[in-house]
């Protein structure tokens, strides 16, 4: 019976406590021994998720409460990974919307909530972090209701159920004045407010692949909700894909979750979320059904990417010194493997002069996560500056526009507003609260945000918060100012010396430390002026046999600014590249002959 299941996704803005809430629910569902050690943020199993403190991939877990199986899907909170959210919402009957009791609804809350409302889901709201000293749950509840109204929620959706919680302390409250005990009020609310699946156990088998995984023992696995009937090991099914003839296949394994552990099931029944193996070429959106009752479900609709980047072999002087996979065939093979499981990325072979693969994505963070994964697998590559995707709409050249939400202390707001306006931004809203925090919204071309995040942190002294969401395509806005400062370019190959760096650090900000290997054409720093400057960072001090007071003073070197992968992609211009290897990130000029000409001048 489907009444024994509840399927829901947890959605929220970054750092509002989705994964911590799941930790509390899992710990209180008697899945672990009393002395069993459980890690923090159990669902963040991917290494980059633990390091960055964000959820990147949607993940499924399951637990029992009062003989009911509750299937939770933990979704990413960053707009770059919204493709993960869009496809998993098709597997659930409701969503658990987490809102911070102090911050209230944030930009990403708006994005994921609008997706859920459009699909007709009735969210359950959890006001989280009520234990914080500045929590104001009543204000946040009113702001959440206003957001529902703003997003066009129906009367049924506006009548949402809610509770209060402190995920980190492990309790939920039906009423704010209640005494904190455990998560039972939230469990009870889920059973009461989340409708069971409407799938018919007596109907023929039907399922759509919503996520794809790979197991080295059983091959590709398709995960989805069983929309009708049941599926058993050894069962023959019909596999259907858009644009291809139907194919018969045999299910070799069925798996589900008990907590965070994958377990083998004897069968998958209507309403449950399971993973099936046996179809080696299965892909996202494919339909699996009973051969005697062929049914084809519509493909999964995912919003289009807004930017692209070219990935090539490492052609720099240090190529092959660090990575194990350095050929174009290895890069191509890895990216085509990614294409099979990541529906929100579009990957094609570049049709220009150079041998390259073009990756289309939703934002710089999404592209950086892919590149970081590749370098950790031992690959070397060079990456171009991301470019926005240009469309022709009604005969007019159009580009992606983003809605930017900024929160900054009032004294820094003027410089941020001026900078965004220079980048073709149009202000939509401005307000300052009693605490001196200014909040404003801009509509700005995606091009205008490229390379701006580092400047934004400098302008606000690290106190500003900026979030952007794709809005729409609009006619081309014209030229936008590029990087305001030039680069310091190495004139030769060798090792950086403290002696030369001591003199050069007056010229700008350096990216290298004494002893770092550099080569001709490598960007070793940011110039303090707007022009590129060719410099010698390998020059050593001339040694003489004359000693004099003060001549042997060691120069004081300012610690270098080490660029992360996202910062390096942000920093470079069209004629520059990022060199990515397992241990090093370097930026360099695309055409090294140009550096030679500058040296001769």
Key attributes of the depicted protein:
single chain, 601 residues, alpha+beta, Rossmann fold, Elongation Factor Tu (Ef-tu), domain 3, Alpha-Beta Plaits, eleven-stranded mixed beta sheet, nine-stranded antiparallel beta sheet, 15 helices
Characterize the structure shown.
The protein is α+β, with helices and mostly antiparallel strands and 601 residues long. It folds into five domains: 192 residues, P-loop containing nucleotide triphosphate hydrolases (Rossmann fold); 84 residues, Elongation Factor Tu (Ef-tu), domain 3, CATH 2.40.30; 82 residues, Elongation Factor G (Translational Gtpase), domain 3 (Alpha-Beta Plaits, 2-Layer Sandwich), CATH 3.30.70; 85 residues, Alpha-Beta Plaits (2-Layer Sandwich); 114 residues, Beta Barrel (OB fold (Dihydrolipoamide Acetyltransferase, E2P)). 23% of the residues lie in helices and 31% in strands. It has 15 helices and 36 strands. The strands form six sheets. Strands 19, 20, 21, 22, 23, 29, 31, 33, 34, 35 and 36 form an eleven-stranded mixed beta sheet that branches. Strands 8, 9, 10, 12, 13, 14, 15, 17 and 18 form a nine-stranded antiparallel beta sheet that branches. A seven-stranded mixed beta sheet has the order 2-3-1-4-5-6-7, sandwiched between helices. Strand 4, helix 4 and strand 5 form a beta-alpha-beta unit. Helix 9 crosses helix 14. The model has no long low-confidence stretch (mean pLDDT 82).
Q: Class of the largest domain in CATH?
A: Alpha Beta
Quickly count the domains. 5
Q: Name the helicity range.
A: 10-25%
For the record, the CATH architecture of the largest domain stands as 3-Layer(aba) Sandwich
Cα end-to-end separation: 80 Å
